[in-house]
Amino acid sequence: MRIVIKIGTSNLTYSTGCINIRHIEKLVKVLSDIKNAGCEVILVSSGAIAMGVGKLNLPSRPSDIAGKQACAAIGQCELMYTYDKLFSEYNHTVAQILLTAPDLACEERSSKFRATIDKLLSLKVLPIINENDTVATEEIEFGDNDTLAAKVAVSASADLVILLSDIDGLYSADPKTDPTAALIPDVYEIDERIVALAGGAGTNLGTGGMATKLRAAKIATDAGCDLIIMNGDDPDKLYTATEGIKIGTRFYSKR
């Protein structure tokens, strides 16, 4: 099974922007084990800008594009150094791929991306993908890695996308303000009622929210790939998702 797993900024860093060492170490251990079990894993990782914020000891995420790009340039080095060091402890090699939206929109560039992914996976390498925030502008300001993960999954012909977030899945209402909100375990059609359940952005250091996750689910399921939104607070829960046991909210593809 080929799986695209997206990890959000809130699951990688503390509110200070500094890396959550305990969490990322456990995540890498679980992903390595899932890979050992025979799954092909592609990781879409946020966190470059937030790590840059932490590395520079800034009080908050910059609001200007140049500031965000500077933080991304610094933070991406830190992010990949951390992944390379931790995955190597479990005898796994990683590769970095930085993308912008046109890379997957252009057929020629997209086909080269697919060929590279296929080759890396055949070599048992774990690709780690992020948006190329140092040259992108629209993606930083309005985009997200949820959509990127879905587009990567479509391009790479993945079987499943897992979006790790700071929420358990899609709820009938906002669980932060409505105590009667109930988790929706299965979604077979993303209609107007489902779209209306989306809220705003998540954390101050991140850019995603439920709206971006629903957009990603629509992209993935229309292309024949299931998508799961689940809480990334405990990486061990990934075993549940990859073994087909119900967790979070699963959006079923139109196969």
Description:
- With 255 residues, the chain is an alpha/beta fold.
- Helices cover 44% and strands 16% of the residues.
- The chain is built from 11 helices and 8 strands.
- An 8-stranded mixed β-sheet has the order 3-4-2-1-5-7-8-6, sandwiched between helices.
- Helix 3 (48-55) packs across helix 4 (65-88) and helix 8 runs parallel beside helix 10.
- The protein starts with a strand and ends with a strand.
- The model is unreliable at 200-208 (pLDDT under 50).
What does the secondary structure layout of this molecule look like, with pairings?
Layout (H helix, E strand, L loop, with lengths): L1 E6 L1 H4 L8 H16 L3 E6 L2 H8 L9 H24 L5 E6 L1 H5 L1 H16 L3 E6 L6 H5 L2 H11 L4 E6 L20 E2 L4 H4 L14 H13 L3 E6 L5 H6 L6 E3 L4
Parallel strand pairs: 1-2, 1-5, 2-4, 3-4, 5-7, 6-8
Antiparallel strand pairs: 7-8
Helix pairs in contact: 3-4, 8-10
How much of the sequence is in beta strands? 15-25%
Low-confidence stretches: 200-208
By DSSP (H or I, 4+ residues per run), the number of helices equals 11
Structural class: alpha/beta
Q: Determine the mean pLDDT.
A: 88
What would the principal axes of the Cα set say about the shape? globular
Number of strands: 8
Helix share, percent: 40-55%
The major β-sheet equals: 8 strands, mixed
- What is the CA-CA span between the terminal residues? 16 Å
Order of helices and strands: EHHEHHEHHEHHEEHHEHE
The strand line-up of the biggest sheet is 3-4-2-1-5-7-8-6
Task: Report the C-alpha radius of gyration, rounded.
Answer: 17 Å
